[in-house]
Known about the structure:
Four copies of one chain form a homotetramer. Chain A has two domains: 3-175 and 359-373, Glycogen Phosphorylase B (Rossmann fold); 181-349, Glycogen Phosphorylase B (Rossmann fold). Chain A has 14 helices and 14 strands. The first copy, chain A, has helices spanning 12-27, 49-55, 73-94, 108-117, 134-145, 154-162, 179-186, 194-198, 226-240, 255-268, 282-290, 305-309, 336-349, 363-373, and strands spanning 3-9, 31-38, 62-64, 98-102, 122-125, 148-151, 170-172, 201-202, 212-215, 244-247, 274-277, 294-297, 313-316, 329-332. A seven-stranded parallel sheet of chain A has the order 3-2-1-4-5-6-7, with helices on both faces. The radius of gyration of chain A is 20 Å and the shape is globular. The mean pLDDT of chain A is 92. Chains in contact: A-B, A-C, A-D, B-C, B-D, C-D. Chains A, B, C, D: It comes from Flavobacterium aurantiibacter. Chains A, B, C, D: It holds the Pfam family Epimerase_2. Chains A, B, C, D: This is UDP-N-acetylglucosamine 2-epimerase (Hydrolyzing).
Amino acid sequence: MKRKIAVVITARPSYSRVKTVLTALKNAPDVELQLIVAASALLDRYGNAVERIEADGFEVTARVFNVLEGENLTAAAKTTGIGILELSTVFDNLKPDIVVSIADRFETIATAISASYMNIPLAHIQGGEVTGNIDEKVRHAVTKLADYHFVASEGAKERVIKLGENPDFVFNTGCPSIDLAVEVLANPELDFDPYQKYGGVGEKPDLSNGYLVVMQHPVTNEYTQSRQHIEETFKAVIEINLPTLWFWPNIDAGADGTSTGIRAFRENNNIQNVHFFKNMDGIDFLRILANAKVLVGNSSVGIREAAFLGVPVVNVGTRQNRRDRAENVVDVVHETQIIKDAIQWQIERIRYQSSDLYGDGSAGKRIANLLTTVPLHFHKTISY
Amino acid sequence: MKRKIAVVITARPSYSRVKTVLTALKNAPDVELQLIVAASALLDRYGNAVERIEADGFEVTARVFNVLEGENLTAAAKTTGIGILELSTVFDNLKPDIVVSIADRFETIATAISASYMNIPLAHIQGGEVTGNIDEKVRHAVTKLADYHFVASEGAKERVIKLGENPDFVFNTGCPSIDLAVEVLANPELDFDPYQKYGGVGEKPDLSNGYLVVMQHPVTNEYTQSRQHIEETFKAVIEINLPTLWFWPNIDAGADGTSTGIRAFRENNNIQNVHFFKNMDGIDFLRILANAKVLVGNSSVGIREAAFLGVPVVNVGTRQNRRDRAENVVDVVHETQIIKDAIQWQIERIRYQSSDLYGDGSAGKRIANLLTTVPLHFHKTISY
Amino acid sequence: MKRKIAVVITARPSYSRVKTVLTALKNAPDVELQLIVAASALLDRYGNAVERIEADGFEVTARVFNVLEGENLTAAAKTTGIGILELSTVFDNLKPDIVVSIADRFETIATAISASYMNIPLAHIQGGEVTGNIDEKVRHAVTKLADYHFVASEGAKERVIKLGENPDFVFNTGCPSIDLAVEVLANPELDFDPYQKYGGVGEKPDLSNGYLVVMQHPVTNEYTQSRQHIEETFKAVIEINLPTLWFWPNIDAGADGTSTGIRAFRENNNIQNVHFFKNMDGIDFLRILANAKVLVGNSSVGIREAAFLGVPVVNVGTRQNRRDRAENVVDVVHETQIIKDAIQWQIERIRYQSSDLYGDGSAGKRIANLLTTVPLHFHKTISY
Amino acid sequence: MKRKIAVVITARPSYSRVKTVLTALKNAPDVELQLIVAASALLDRYGNAVERIEADGFEVTARVFNVLEGENLTAAAKTTGIGILELSTVFDNLKPDIVVSIADRFETIATAISASYMNIPLAHIQGGEVTGNIDEKVRHAVTKLADYHFVASEGAKERVIKLGENPDFVFNTGCPSIDLAVEVLANPELDFDPYQKYGGVGEKPDLSNGYLVVMQHPVTNEYTQSRQHIEETFKAVIEINLPTLWFWPNIDAGADGTSTGIRAFRENNNIQNVHFFKNMDGIDFLRILANAKVLVGNSSVGIREAAFLGVPVVNVGTRQNRRDRAENVVDVVHETQIIKDAIQWQIERIRYQSSDLYGDGSAGKRIANLLTTVPLHFHKTISY
């Protein structure tokens, strides 16, 4: 009988992160892949990952709408509560043999609670990392609910084991988001016109002499400051005055703070040289990244994929605090002048050497293989 | 301005456990106690703790009905999801400065998620212990969501610190459930007629020459076995043929397995010498316990209060696995003959020396004092 | 392509009512029957209708646990809210062509809202009747949400049309609960031992010289009175002192009032001659009814099935107010003496003539045929 | 003791509609006004009515976030389910003597269900009207759940009575939205600069020689067509080429269709002469309306306020089907040329006579007075 493996995707970046896992599972002979798409991954204004997923040839087994609207943290809690209500019904019907929860967004704990409470073995991808806000609490709580851990670095593996998990079930697979970058590192040429392929709004600056990429997300615990933070970055980028490709932030309490800041800044300033995208397919995005002079913002892409591709990064603020870094990252606070100086410094670096800190490009296959073969159990006790 | 401290009570045993904390908070001059009663603590068939709470002179600030009916594990997950939906509204209205979550029942993670997601500092009572089922996952996950830890033993303190928590905010206060036992240990006389005061059903055996007490709860991960387990215990108790006071199990997926087992056994056997209670006030129960020949079952009362009172305990099955024990406990598996032999052995021990393994009787005051004075924060990162 | 017809069963009596509809749908060649079992129909303590349904050979397509525990009216509202959340996910996945909602229990409006809000054509069975409590509001509100109406009497048909519904889609099919009674009316012999087949508790009085049947449900709007009401009936029945078969009430806010009343009365009185059943298969129950001297209580069974079978009925209280009656019914208030006198009067009547006020026994086939053939639409406006 | 009157506001237009009721209740001596703000009335992207409410001097008693994100009808159903869950908790805490539900938006039935299921008397404002989509089902279903009816016209009164409601509790008070227009009708001068006061986006055409106003909402049952519908209107308005003030649509399944259509049209066309507002205070909006050459779209404002103010209206599509009209309305289908011709025709009409079809301007006081004085009950049966 085929092993039924349920993967719950709750956001576009999570999908990009595990795409190679899904591909490997889909092609595995003894696996029935149950793909559950939920939360912002279903919503237009966060990039409608589900369309991407289906366009990539995956069949969606169930859809769960659970994002509660609201400009406050209460909505994040409620979204999680609704997620549990809905996912437990989904699991009740699909009866998966094992459930996979990805990373540390707030709503992912709904997957972990539904599965663990229903005695379904739970695997967690990307535990053991360290950041500085609610994600930190969520990530380690999910580790304590999970039975199998697929982590992205040696540092992460050590931490998960220190958290009292059985070392037999903690696997450093590397991060599957790196997998896609292997091909791009080998052949980095920008082979498509991003304006034509992805639309977006704003000027369409010429990219042939280099450009910046910006991705800055709100930080949950400081969401009232989101608007100010985004403005500091905006000013720095404008003053640098290079062609810039700006990617819209993901959903979160405070997302509207950041979004509003971007909209207001655009409305009140005559901005040139900047084009805004909602999102982009993983491989296309990596090509854009591979050819950027500098990546600016606070995305984990700067820590992982950019390290593998050797792209200089200006990491702004606390969002990636204490994540292991390769040498490509310069950290700065939310101040226009400091951000600007750091961008200038990194422009001159041109390129760093490729780092395998977060994997060598085979994480997807390793994770799929483990999901297919680990002995199933849902009972554990702390190791100390 | 008074510090607003919200305590969420979700079950009758949790109330008994923290009663002395609540009393100390109620009497503290600079505290506004927000008492939130939820889940089975509101329901008749689980002992209606809320009536007891009000009879004890506490004012209930908010009530949250969130127990979903169902004879399966899905209902436990859903109860938790509804709890998050409801509690986040309650917190949104009450705006507590700090929230207290108690122990490790499945639904308590709803308190932890709502508070932590809303950036409200979260204190957890009784983390760091070790058991063998879903409670184990819940307990440590709540630890990773919490900012302050009030643990009941040195072993628990060490474990919470190993989990990466800041030692400055991990306090071994002892278990407040022990506090009530101080008075009983000093003066253990049975000063009331339990039949008259608490009703219940079944024969009313004479207690003056000693009696057994039985408390056996279902074990979540084995709920289909609950009925068999309870029958093994039942047979052993019947064969011992001493006056017996049997306490009804608490709510859980599987509660009905145990309850059904008890009902069926009663219906099919002519049982003498056994009286059944739904529940009892903390102090009265401790007097009953203090005068028992042996406590039989799998309640944590056997590990904690009975140790302090020196009462012999026959602990059946895996529910208290790996909890630190004093010498008063004998562990047995679910087999009639083995349970019976252990009861006989313990009857002959008569009494053990009082142990302070789980506290010296001042935990309530210590916890209340800490809740009132700790600097408030909700931001943390793992310590390694 | 087969028409997908979703029927939502939320309680044991609703199942009995539509069983012949389900059988006809199951046997129809161009129909895919989607059977959704929800609410108390899934719960042991309300008779676990789902087991009966499966034993009768129906396949359950989806299960929805949505009963919130609680001894108050708030729980009824919340159960409905959860029902909408869950049923809309179910409909989203099953994509039925038409949805069927049954009668007027509070939780049935969840079916009606989910379907109508999702633009799925909605059929309602048993609209247009008149009672005196929350069911009254629910029933007519569901009529206003529904697109097709299968009513049980001419009076009901007139009322639904007066409510502004298009007469083309209001069909007097009779009540399908009558269908089962056709066979029993033809051959009423009691061909099984109810004690042996259905267990239950209490004495097992000899039934060969006749017996009473009692079914009394709580009335939502008066739930604090439920306990007193049930006691009046209990006293009357005890004083009559005939063999009595008593059926446990269904779920409702207040169910516990009635249940508690029954339990307390049993505990405090030495009751003989009364046996208690949780429930019984439809056809068996009808045989029990057909041979009863009198049916006592407030069940709609007295108004419908008993009329068809010619069984004398003492209808107590307001629950069946304004439902059309045949001559077999005597209405009384909640007073012991009056109930007793009425029982005595009815005993002497022995039998009434069979009435077809609520149908001729072919309702199930008619409804199934209409569900399979009506043109599908979900757009309507009031007719005046 | 003061009568506790709870009013639930779920959208910005509903607030505008009942503002004069709230003012009268706030000033009534024996009333405790419990103002509950929920759903889109709390959300920035639908105009954040709650800020307006507080700026107007009302105190908000409770906030309920219940809007589930999603571009489909399922989200509307789920929003309603969450609303019931949350509102029943709110009512449980506030214990209102009577609850007021407004009009017919899909989520308003949550108010009606929570109140009626909890035996709280329910008043409904604006029943008895006729439209052509899901609102139609919702409106009449709420009527059947409600105990008191405050309707806006004689036609509406007749319909509610025909629906079987007791005529003693059906009151034609007129529509309170008209109340604000009394002052504007007397003194219609545009006394503020809308661009300066309300921001918005787009060109800022000169308004001194007249202008169009556009308000077009998605129609739930046709949401896939929303985008095409809005484009037809857009083209007609562009071709007319007069200064135009365009108001953003309200929330609904399909809102994003309409919004997307507007955004796309703006992005792809060089639009001049059009300014877009999210919303405006009631009285300011009425002044804008009073001075408009024509109101275009499908808002009920065209049927009510515009009739009272004598403003010519081009009503597009089916949304206002069968609402009683004064002579100021011309109805058209969704075709550019036809819409354009109708606008041209209406421009030449200049002004119509004021109509009192929907009230004389004292509805707010009448409704408040009735809410304060009607005998309270929650029990009813259909009148036929």
